[in-house]
Amino acid sequence: MEKININGLEVAIFIPKISTDKRIDFLTNANDQLQIAAFSMNSGQTIQPHMHIEQKRELFETHEIIFIQEGILIVNFYRDPDRDEIFKSIEMHQGDLIYLKGGIHGFTVGEDCKFIEIKQGPFVDGEDKIKLYEGNQ
Question: Rounded to two decimals, what is the model's pTM?
């Protein structure tokens, strides 16, 4: 697991080949907006039936998770909204997961790729993100 920090802020957690040998292994902090846990369970084991209690939560930014099903996706991180300059890149492969917590990021497909994106909703088109670096598509 690699934590990516830019300008003193943790902007992402990269978890290559997400897996565990533990029954349950929480990989994020309890105060993160999204919780990631990996499980290793045997046939016949159960998770006790439960329900989640309604709680009001205030969110001020969108966090997202990307999980690679196949191919290669490169995640590029930037420091400055005014400069189209890559600070760090992470090459993701099948089974890799990244939790994007903030900062400026973009993607380049390194090989034909299938991936899943998970983020909080609802998504408000035109209000949830700002596209930077015109011509960089």
Answer: 0.91
